[in-house]
Amino acid sequence: MKVAGRIESLPPYLFAELDKKLEAKRAEGVDVISLGIGDPDTPTPDHIIAAMHEAIDDPSTHQYPSYYGSKPFREAAARWYRRRFDVALDPETEVMALIGSKEGLGHLSFAFLDPGDEALVPDPGYPVYGISTMLAGGTPVSIPMPAEKGFLPDLDAAAAKVTNKTKLMWLNFPSNPTAATASLEDMTHAVEFAREHGLLVAHDAAYSEITYDGYVAPSILQVPGAKDVAIEFNSLSKFYNMTGWRIGFCVGSAEAVRALSIVKTNLDSGQFDAIQRAGIAAMDGPQDHIAELRTLYKARRDLVVSTLNGLGWDIQPPKGAIYVWVPTLGGKTSTEFVDFLLDETGVFVAPGSGYGANGEGYVRFALTVRDDRLAEAMDRLSRVLG
Ligand SMILES: *Cc1c(COP(=O)(O)O)cnc(C)c1O
User: Fold this and answer.
1) Which of 10, 30, 219, 351 is the most exposed place for a label (fewest CB within 10 A)?
2) Which domain holds residue 322?
3) Which residue's CA is minimally distant from atom 2 of ligand 1?
4) Predicted model pTM
5) Which of 37, 121, 126, 251 has most ligand 1 atoms within 8 Å of CB, for mutation?
């Protein structure tokens, strides 16, 4: 048999190799503390689980769900956007449920890119944007996110890279992996950029609720007229500790939602209705749990930043997401520094180079491990680097 060229030509998946290294360390008996993956360590809130229990006992949830998400789910997402961002959405045409937002992010490339087309992707950025571009036969083109600009996109540099093949621009704030945050003004520039160049801007807002120090993340749809050129992806994964449940949604441009729905109706059959009902309970239910998450991650962020700054770094505490983005020491590459930390301390962090060429020279610390384990990880770093 012969596997498709689009599979064989993908760059090797750095994280698969690192997984092997981690396994080997554990097999040697090393007590590895992994700060590699951003996956909330605390459980899904009880009222959401209770809604799921009830929904799963209702046989009407056992049949094929709606392709687009149930009407009640789409209405709940629209209410959530109204409450949170004061953005009005038509649940019929401007909201669609996703099997986790990653599913929609990946499929959007198939809705907007023909072979040979180009997509502007943040570098460093979440790998799905660039990889799905390649799977769709397109070419990812890096948007520089310079450190000196706070890892915000250099749109002038991006404009110089636009061609008549450029169909899509990806953004993600608060950012994975850099934890950079954007203002409504930054979002306005992105919308103007999309309008000027006749392309769709896709904003991944997976961390919009995980913010600190009084910072409130905007939605790109708060920019007047954004719905003409923008789609926004959101996810229940991080706000409600629902990564395993696979539920998210997209909102915005009716044309973009329609195009994505055509890919999806041909490839999947929607998300389990019981999970959508649990999602409604999450979005409509008490939100105090999000405040608790912010408090939890903020304390961890402060511990990591103060430990590293005590060891000679000069890191500003990030105002969003669940990561601390850290330059390597001694001119080491990302993977050299990851290996060094793993060998010397048993602490594993993600190499910045896994998030794009401009991530080289950085590593990413995730804040999603138990407090006592994070404290232990910081003690180990202090012993070796102090
Ligand atoms: C975690 C994360 C998501 C959420 O993905 P789901 O598929 O909804 O679980 C989306 N985008 C980014 C950048 C993330 O880090």
Assistant:
1) 10
2) 5-43+288-385
3) 206
4) 0.97
5) 126
